[in-house]
Each structure stands twice: as structure tokens, then as C-alpha cells.
Inverse folding.
């Protein structure tokens, strides 16, 4: 298990969440100013400096339930509200999209290019908001400094850690099913065609060498696929062509997206329950992260004029039906966040929360108390 996996998991899942929310805000004709405010508030919270400092520390992955709690807080960092069924669907779409991207990465190192594609899109969401843009640029630098020096073996360990995290998730997604890249059991179909990984050759040739290292013969074989030569390598700089399309917005062309529970989920219920149970260490770490992101239990806003609800289903009836029919093993629930009683820790958390106030005050959208990020989260 790699201790460097958490930042990549968080940034890629966060990027997928923003893609989905952007699409749903447009589909529900939410006024442009409110939609922009939601995106800005979530990105501001996601890229808070102190939060990222904790995130980038070497550490083990959180449990599925713990990570889901973090994204529940993140999705409700603004005036938007999601019912549990819509939040479940949002998280399912996020996780299955990134799982697909990890599986299709030609090289383990390309996971970093996928992350940069998400970062590029996030940067575009806030291109008109310089204060938030600075936070995003700092994260680019942290990613480059932490991950570009890593060898192929370390990236392979990160990829393996991610696939272990995703291995029991087999939610069927309509886009993947229609594109025939996912089977009816929720498992993905890996291609046997297309360009080979950068730095490799099309399979089909065996070279035979003598003890002295001289080539003495060649054998050809049928590779069973339709492979082509490798594309050029994508850019690992802040600006540049990533080459790969993995991690770009698959919702840019509007089409309905539905999720369905795989029939195999019931068979793996016991195994899934073991994996989703939060371990004490992860929960303690989550307590700090949740504090950084707003802390207290999410409650409904008393200001009905400023807040609004987003439904990831076509109708309220479909949303209610999804909530009722969801298998118990896939209902993550939310961990109850408890603030530490240590006074020194509380003082540090208060200082961090003060930084949230400062960042919200600097935002051009924060013209009143109702628009202040911290005030909104206190009023949840």
C-alpha cells in the first residue's frame, strides 16, 4: 500500500464531482450566479491551504465510509443541498468514473496525467476568480514536487492501492453501458486495441539473444489485438498537452446518466461491509479533515431564499425510489464527527477556521454574511 495515494484519490474524485455538479446545475437551470457560487465555494474549500497540508502528508487511505463523509461535507460547502439518494448517486458516479480511468491508464505514471486533466478543468471553472486560482496553482506545484520524481515502481504501487480501494465497487453507469465499456455485472471491459503505452513497442515480436548479448534470432506471434504505436508523452508541467483524454469531462455532451446496483453486490455484501467499516485511526484523522472543511453536522439552511436543492435523478419520485431500493452494504451513511477535547488542538482548529473566514472574505462572491463561506457552513 502506498502512503502517497490519498492526494491523487481526493483530487481526481473531487474533479469528477465538479463535472457532475456542473452538468446538473445546468440541467436544472439554476441561475448562473448561484451555480458559479456553488462551484467557487466548493473549490475554495477543496483547495484550502491547511486542508491540503494535511492531505499531502504521507498516510494510509481512509476507509470508504470515511472518504464518503469528507465528500459529503465538501458537496454541502455552499448553498446547494443534496438529498441522501442524490448524494449516493453522485458518489457512485465519481468513484466509478475514476476507477475506469485508473484501469485504462496505459502506464501507472499516467495516473498523474489524469490528475492534471482534472486540475486543468478545475482551473477553468475558476478562471475568473484570481483568489481561488492562486490556491489551485499552489496545488499544481505540490503535485509536481511530490509525484514527478517518483519511479515507475512507486506509481505501480499507487495504482495497485487505488485498485484495491475500488475492487468491490461494481455500480453500473448508463454512459459506460451505452458505450459498451462496462458489462451488465458492473465490471469494465478493457480494450485490446489502440496505442501502446509510451516507451513500449507493439507486441508481436520476440528477440532471441546469445550469452554475449548479440541478437541471434527473431520470432513473430499474433498479439490478439489491434494495437498501434505509442502516442507522444503527455506534459507533466503546469501548462501543456496531457495527450490522454482520461480525466476530461465526459459530461460535456449532455446525456442522461443513471446508476444501477450490480447483481454481484449482494454476493459481496459481507466483504463490502468489512471494507466500509471505519477504523479508529482513519476516523481520528477524518475528525481533523472534517473540521478543516466545516466540521459540525450538516443541517438544513434556515434561509430558503439563498439555498436550493439539486436532484441527480429525473424526478423526485425516482430519487425516493433509489433511496428505498439501495442495498444496505452500499449505504455508507455519515460518520458523526466529534471535535477533540484537547484545548491546544481546539486552538489550532480555531486558527484554521479563521483562515476559512479570510479566504471567504477575499472572494468576490462574498458581499454579505449570507455569502460568507464560513457563515453558510455555520448555518447549515
Amino acid at each position: 500500500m502506498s502512503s502517497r495515494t490519498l492526494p491523487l484519490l481526493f483530487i481526481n474524485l473531487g474533479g469528477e464531482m465538479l463535472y457532475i455538479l456542473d452538468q446538473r446545475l445546468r440541467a436544472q437551470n439554476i441561475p448562473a450566479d448561484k451555480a458559479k457560487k456553488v462551484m467557487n465555494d466548493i473549490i475554495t474549500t477543496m483547495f484550502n491551504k491547511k486542508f491540503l497540508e494535511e492531505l499531502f502528508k504521507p498516510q494510509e487511505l481512509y476507509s470508504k465510509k470515511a472518504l464518503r463523509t469528507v465528500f459529503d461535507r465538501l458537496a454541502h460547502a455552499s448553498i446547494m443541498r443534496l438529498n441522501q439518494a442524490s448524494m449516493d448517486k453522485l458518489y457512485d458516479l465519481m468513484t466509478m468514473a475514476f476507477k475506469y480511468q485508473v484501469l485504462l491508464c496505459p502506464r501507472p505514471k499516467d495516473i498523474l496525467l489524469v490528475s492534471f486533466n482534472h486540475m486543468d478543468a478545475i482551473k477553468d471553472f475558476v478562471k475568473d476568480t484570481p483568489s481561488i486560482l492562486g490556491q489551485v496553482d499552489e496545488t499544481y506545484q505540490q503535485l509536481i514536487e511530490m509525484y514527478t520524481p517518483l519511479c515507475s515502481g512507486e506509481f505501480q504501487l499507487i495504482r495497485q492501492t487505488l485498485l484495491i480501494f475500488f475492487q468491490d465497487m461494481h455500480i453500473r453507469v448508463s454512459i459506460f453501458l451505452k458505450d459498451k465499456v462496462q458489462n451488465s455485472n458492473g465490471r469494465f471491459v478493457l480494450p485490446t486495441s489502440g496505442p501502446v503505452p509510451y516507451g513500449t513497442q507493439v507486441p508481436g515480436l520476440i528477440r532471441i539473444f546469445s550469452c554475449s548479448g548479440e541478437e541471434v534470432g527473431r520470432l513473430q506471434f499474433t498479439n490478439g489485438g489491434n494495437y498501434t504505436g505509442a502516442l507522444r508523452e503527455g506534459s507533466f508541467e503546469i501548462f501543456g498537452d496531457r495527450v490522454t483524454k482520461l480525466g476530461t469531462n465526459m459530461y460535456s455532451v449532455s446525456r442522461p446518466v443513471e446508476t444501477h446496483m450490480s447483481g454481484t453486490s449482494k454476493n459481496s455484501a459481507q466483504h463490502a461491509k468489512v471494507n466500509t467499516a471505519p477504523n479508529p485511526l482513519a476516523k481520528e484523522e477524518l475528525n481533523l479533515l472534517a473540521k478543516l472543511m466545516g466540521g459540525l453536522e450538516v443541517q438544513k439552511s434556515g434561509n430558503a431564499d439563498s439555498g436550493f436543492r439539486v436532484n441527480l435523478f429525473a424526478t423526485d419520485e425516482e430519487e425516493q425510489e433509489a433511496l428505498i431500493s439501495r442495498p444496505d452494504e452500499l449505504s455508507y451513511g455519515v460518520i458523526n464527527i466529534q471535535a477533540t477535547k484537547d484545548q491546544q488542538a481546539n486552538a489550532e482548529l480555531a486558527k484554521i477556521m479563521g483562515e476559512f473566514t479570510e479566504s471567504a472574505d477575499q472572494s468576490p462572491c462574498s458581499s454579505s454574511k449570507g455569502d460568507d463561506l464560513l457563515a453558510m457552513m455555520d448555518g447549515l
Observations:
- The longest strand covers residues 215-220.
- Residues 263-278, 294-302, 334-346, 363-380 have pLDDT under 50 and may be disordered.
- The longest helix spans residues 6-27.
